[in-house]
Amino acid sequence: MGKYSLESYERYKMIKCRPQEKAEAIQGAGLSSFETVRIVLGQAKPVLKTKTLLEVSVPHAAIDIMAQTESRLRSLASRYYRDSLVLGVKIVSDTNAANKRRLWETAAEAFAPKRYYVPLEDGAQLDYAIKHGLAKGLSVTVGENVLDTCELFAQNNAQQLYKQMPVLVSFHDGRHQLAAYAQQWHAMAVEGIDAPAGFRIALRRLNYPKALSSGGFAPMQFWWTNKGISFCHDATQIRLRLEKDGEYTSVALNDHPLKIHLADRVHNEIVRLPNVRPGVYHLEYGLFTKEGDALTLSHEGRTTDGYYAADVMHIDDTPRPEYETIWDDYFADGYYPLEDPKEPV
Which end of the chain is more exposed for a tag (fewer CB within 10 A), N or C? Predict the structure, then answer.
């Protein structure tokens, strides 16, 4: 324990929980691969088998009355917008500029909350979709010459878009040496080759007092890390629950979205514990999207409903009102990230 360790500054005895992080990425942590399914508007709607980007083709010849075309597009969206396998949709059309804009706007609205992906090669669509708030993802298709795609990134000023939206990359060449480009573009998922992609989030460390009060407050410090190559663009919520004798009790946290991009993110919260009988409880944690989907973290031991084991909580009937205001004059974050011993005391 060194001069700048958290333990040197703590005012009460803490449990320091460090869940074991997997040395290798767990399949499904973030997203590693996907498939592009091409649909011609008005034709058969395929059944999806894996994580999918829908590419909807709207030929100019198929547009008789624009209102009817928009109606067909909304009908297609009603088939897929709740499908958990659908990552999002993109529109490909050879119609005129005015019709294209109506198609983009209709698709972005009809498929929501699924993401609307914009093809990198369509500079006009990318510009329009960003300016009008339609773009929620970037679709990158790599042809025979990967340098042409690099040039498109530069021409469309898209090098930093991975910070705003997920990037899906499709390779049609199959060369494994192209994996470095997927990493360079911070791909959320890759089609066509085996390449690193997605986020890799883990709970690096969790601290809370050793002695807690039933119905009282618990100052909790979460240290999250993302060692993947992509941001996690979904606003996530931390969920906690206590387990004792096979019974589970949820622990309420503030309803603030938590964004974990790359590297580390420290989140502090004073949690109100439920009124439970005194005893020793097993604490479990998970990260969930606002729709309630559980993220797969880089840990073993995931339960079927998306939780992971942390440590135990010792809960009694002794009041500890000081925990509610403990951080008013105590700034542990000023010291905490500076030193991270491998074996917390």
Answer: C
pLDDT, one tens digit per residue, over 236-291 is 899 999 999 999 999 989 877 777 777 788 888 899 999 999 999 999 999 998 87
User: What does pTM read for this prediction?
Assistant: 0.85
Q: Say if CB 198 and CB 29 are below 8 A apart.
A: yes
- Which 3 state secondary structure label does DSSP give 140? strand
* Cβ–Cβ < 8 Å for 220, 210: no
ω into 113 cis (within 30 of 0) = yes
Whether the CA torsion 191, 193, 194, 198 is positive or negative: it is negative
pLDDT in tens, 133-158: 999 999 999 988 999 999 999 999 99
Rounded to whole angstroms, the Cα distance separating 75 from 42 reads 9
Relative to beta strand 35-40, strand 52-58 is: parallel
Q: Name which of 21, 2, 23 is nearest 344 in CA terms.
A: 2
DSSP 8-state assignment for residue 11? S
The per-residue DSSP string of 163-215 comes to GTS-EEEEESS--GGGHHHHHHTT-SEEESS----S--EEEEEEEEESEEETT
